[in-house]
Amino acid sequence: MSKPTRAAAFPAAPRIAPSILSADFARLGEEVRRVIESGADVIHFDVMDNHYVPNLTIGPAVCKAIRPHTTAPIDVHLMVKPVDAIIPMFAEAGADIISIHPEATEHVDRSLTLIRECGCRAGLVFNPATSLSWLDHVMERLDLILLMSVNPGFGGQAFIPQVLPKAREARARIDAWVAKGGQPIWLEIDGGVKADNIAQVAEAGIDTFVAGSAVFGAPDPDGYYRGIIGRMRAALESVGARRAA
After folding, report:
1. Domain segments of the chain: what residues?
2. Taking 90 as the threshold, does the pLDDT of residue 153 lie above it?
3. Which fold has domain 15-244?
4. Which of 226, 229, 245, 208 is nearest to 75 (CA)?
């Protein structure tokens, strides 16, 4: 079986990644197209199994269904346990990035290697209480680090500000790794990100921003999302301007 077409290109930072968990599932393909046309960079795809987290969402069939609607990267966050059997299914369905939680596998290194062997970029996800010490052993396997700024399971939760020091530590680890000749690694955050706090989050070193209800809960009158994504982009540009000054 031939694999679905991968993303045409991976966008440069900063990246806005709307989570379709908050989209209108009755018209999901249209939602995906509109949010990308409105200026988003990545589609974030939350998978929950009612086992690792207390919620049940969507599977690889939905990923396969939305793949033809965009060439933007599909960033799959697997909140499932055990996880290894699910990884090839999402790779086949058209995922470009697959991220896992260290608590969801017996062998983190092996699971990350499997993601890459399936042709996807590999990410590791840290809940608010999960230590970054896992990075001591797997940096060479990573393309993305995802920090949860809520406890995973449900959309629409409030941002946990105690994650910001953790973001700064993760950024320092990535910068040190790259300075030693390591591969680039995205630093993503998910949970409670909105237009009014995205600049603060960016100042902590985040370069990829997942936003669900903040985006899909604020459509423009024509059904698009240009207004909210534009406000987020302007806030991120202000951070970039301050750094360049």
Report:
1. 15-244
2. no
3. TIM Barrel (3.20.20)
4. 208
